[in-house]
User: Fold this.
Amino acid sequence: MQHILDAIESGASADDFAALPVPESYRAAHVRKDDQEMWVGVPSRDKDPRKSLHIGDVPTPELAPDEAYVAVMASSINFNTVWTSIFEPVSTFGPIARLARESEWAKRHDQPYQVVGSDASGVVLRVGSAVRNWKPGDRVTVHCNHVDDQDPSAHDDSMLANNQRIWGYETNFGGLADLAVVKANQLMPKPEHLTWEEAAVNALCNSTSYRMLVSHNGAQMKQGDVVLIWGATGGIGAYATQYVLNGGGIPVCVVSSAEKGEILRNMGVEHIIDRAAAGYRFLDDDGNHDEGEWRRLGKDIRSLCGEDPDIVFEHPGRSTFAASMYVAKRGGTVVTCAATSGFMMEFDNRHFWMRLKRLIGSHFANYKEAYEANRLISKGMIQPVLSQVFPLEHTGEAAYQVHHNMHEGKIGVLALAPTEGLGVTDHELRDKVGDRLRWFRR
Assistant:
């Protein structure tokens, strides 16, 4: 891959990139089908991604007509990489086997390994014969909406498509590698003022937060809305906080330490709840709910901003869901996209139906939403929330830290990029954005 990196660093032309040989194999972070049972009987917290994520060469698959090879400069860790590595809630080799039954080209995904990763920034190396809008040498970032746009169920909102999948989680050939295989409709222009690692961390979490809060498919936040944000310095939470601030809302941000609260104050957040200091126990040791604790949270929110939340940005799942449904104001909205603390949730339906609340399920973003979210990054209006960067060899450690909530914001992973700080082409905008790019850096 060194010849590819040399071409990227020298600013080679499209023709030069098109003439570069594609390697027969490439370095990738992957899980193995033979390891699917390795964590049977082990509690989730004790499952260690450092033992199940392997770094090594895998064969380069053939390129379909609607696809592109991307030379990956950087990628990032998302919770779905953690889930893949611990084979929860199910092994991802099952969904990949179902994908393989859809077409001849889809059969390539069913391998004894899965290359993981649902984010990437890099350079287009080669495009398939049906690709029109991209060419070798284009600097891109990749969103993870993998869908067959010939399926009519995808035409109104591609996230509603019957065969919608998340690339690098429910497909093979993901972004935590030196090379990635993506559909051309996953490509977006790289924000020119960002480094490779800064550009790599945004697409999944930023687009998810955009759909949840801004889009007509989500909560449709308006000026003055009070928004309760769980995990407000985590991946999606930190983007959500920016959308609320930018959109004239009033964020009430929940974090797990005073240090994380200080990050939010630097961002301009006024209302912060340190859940560790508050000591909320929404569930007791036997898993029973405590409505008194829901009420205490609601009282704490009102003491900060004077009213109940119009919107609750919910993603922890089991540990917080009942409280979220309770504290949302009459006629308010709870929008949820994940369940990192557990997938099976309960809540008191009386507080839901009698107070006319809404519950919205949200999953990643459609093409338009992903592009709009990337546009805001490119204009410097939303900032990457990068806190740490690991080399590809240490992907397991990076996933371990996300698994145990040892991080803030996003963790980046360098693939072909030899060092941090490379890839900036718009220095004027970068200077204008300034210190906001370093909100989360350790």
User: Anything to note?
Assistant: Residues 80 and 169 are 6 Å apart (CA to CA). The chain has 16 helices and 18 strands. The mean pLDDT is 96. The two ends are 30 Å apart (CA to CA).
